[in-house]
Amino acid sequence: MNREAIKVWSAPIRVFHWVNVIAILLLIVIGLIILNGKTLGITSDGKVLLKTLHVTVGYVFALNLFVRLIFGLIGSGYERFGKMLPFYQGFSRELMHFFRNKDTVHKGHNPAGKLMIAAMLLLMSVQAASGLILAGTDIYYPPFGNYFAKSIAVDQAQVQQIRPYSKENVNVQKYKAMRAFRKPFITAHVYAFYGLLILIPLHVAGVIVAERREKSALVSGMISGIKYLPKKPKE
Ligand code: HEM
């Protein structure tokens, strides 16, 4: 087929994508170890270390995601929300057409890809927001750690004495209230994690299927930014 090289993905989007892949893989591995801490016989100190590591990678993940969302709002290319999300009139017709016609080619995401991106961005945002709350209530890390530590301190002047898994300077009633407050966030964090465990392999499978169909070099396109499309690609 007669093809031309078209620049599709900007540099910030490519950087976002691969930083995101590495961060999520690390977060999943560390998260799985935290989740199975009891079975693996991990001590309290070990847990604090794992959580500190998880939160450190989590900051990279959350900042990367935040920058991506900003690009979604102000970007001018295919990173823009208007071009990558499925929330516009006529989308369902486009989706049906995409599934019925195997020869459609898209410069940006295809309609199934748009659905997947929306679902993944939603779950990733839930992970980032709930993770930041958990980091504050669990190991008293920024941005909310100081606030939560103060909220449970017996002596506000000695708030630095409050440490993960320690009862020093902790008001037991207030601590219980804080644990109750964090419950829905841990539930959200775990369910969004399961959701991502389903969506990530589906996303990879979708890319493989689309590449076999379009043969436009989708994977290397996320490195070089270039897709190889038939001379007149349909949007
Ligand atoms: C895609 C991104 C992420 C994934 C897949 C993920 C996954 C997980 C998993 C599976 C757990 C274990 C849950 C449990 O112990 O019951 C966990 C715990 C935790 N995560 Fe994440 N996480 C992500 C992002 C973040 C971010 C951005 C932060 C904060 C900066 C964060 C902070 C925490 C904390 C503090 C815990 C410990 C909660 C606890 O067990 O008390 N996570 N995460």
TrEMBL record:
One of its GO terms (biological process) is respiratory electron transport chain. Residues 8-225 form the Cytochrome b561 bacterial/Ni-hydrogenase domain. Keywords: Cell membrane, Electron transport, Heme, Iron, Membrane, Metal-binding, Transmembrane, Transmembrane helix, Transport. GO terms for molecular function: electron transfer activity; heme binding; iron ion binding. It is a multi-pass membrane protein. One of its GO terms (cellular component) is plasma membrane. InterPro entries: Cyt_b561_bac/Ni-Hgenase, Di-haem_cyt_TM, Hydrogenase_cytochrome, Ni-dep_Hydgase_cyt-B. It comes from the Bacteria. The keyword Transmembrane helix applies. It is found in: Cell membrane. It holds the Pfam family Ni_hydr_CYTB. The chain crosses the membrane at residues 15-35, 55-74, 115-135, 191-210. Belongs to the HupC/HyaC/HydC family. This is Cytochrome B.
